[in-house]
Amino acid sequence: MSRVPRVATTDPATPFDWRRWCAAQAIPEEETRYLLLELLRLPPSALAAPLYLTGRQTRRLAGWVARRRRGAPLQYITGRAHFFGEMVRVGPGCLVPRPETELLVERALDGLEGGARLLDLATGSGCIALAIAHRRPDVQIVATDRSAAALTWARRNLRGVGVTVHRGDLFAPVAGERFDCICCNPPYVEERAILPSDVRGCEPDAALFSGMDGLDHIRRIVAEAPAHLLPGGRLIMEIGTGQGDAITRLARPHFTEVAIHRDYGNHERIFAGRR
Ligand code: GLN
Description:
Blueprint (H helix, E strand, L loop, with lengths): L17 H6 L5 H12 L14 H15 L4 H5 L1 E4 L2 E4 L12 H8 L7 E5 L5 H9 L4 E6 L2 H11 L4 E5 L11 E6 L20 H4 L7 H9 L4 E10 L5 H8 L4 E7 L5 E7 L1
Parallel strand pairs: 3-4, 3-6, 4-5, 6-7
Antiparallel strand pairs: 1-2, 7-9, 8-9
Helix pairs in contact: 2-3
The protein binds glutamine.
The site of glutamine has 9 residues, from loops.
């Protein structure tokens, strides 16, 4: 490894030997490959042909790999995450959109009527509101979050798509308002849970943890959402695996058509209920 240059060729006429370079980095090869493709804005199929990098690109790539070695989430390094076909800008201060949350978008879109009002509670990066707004420009969307840092990302991502953004704790910014659909990816992780080192300590605690059992926010949301739902309105909320029974018990007094949907990893992932 010591004889492999830390920074690859700077000669733009010489193909970049990415296989050799990736293998020499002290991070998993697929992560180096991800960073390389993100840097060059290329699809994975591009790796089948010779790659040429400028000196600037090779220096940037080496910088990115060094940040990853120090533990930063990959998407914080590249500054973007892919979510439901959207390119979402992310960085310190907002949760990186997870593929499981795409299921929440699917559930929210399903049965959304023209002209409906939708609330994206605890919007974070704004990824859910963005995905829905692009597909349903006829729906009025309000997005809220308590974190000023997260809202900086949300405002950037939601610029020009017609989503109203407010800062405040849960339903505080929408006092007296009612919606046809409330969707929410709340913090739901148990405080003592063991998480990967590029999650705990890197992504915001406030977006992840919710008390000893992970249900502090969900208890409040289930109790407070009905007052903000129009008759027949739906709450669609992401949950943690193993929380389905507890949330179903909490929700029964407030909702009809309570359902827990599993993700493609067969984990309980989405709560759905109708007022
Ligand atoms: N799914 C995330 C994780 O496991 C948690 C996101 C959340 O709490 N909403 O890291």
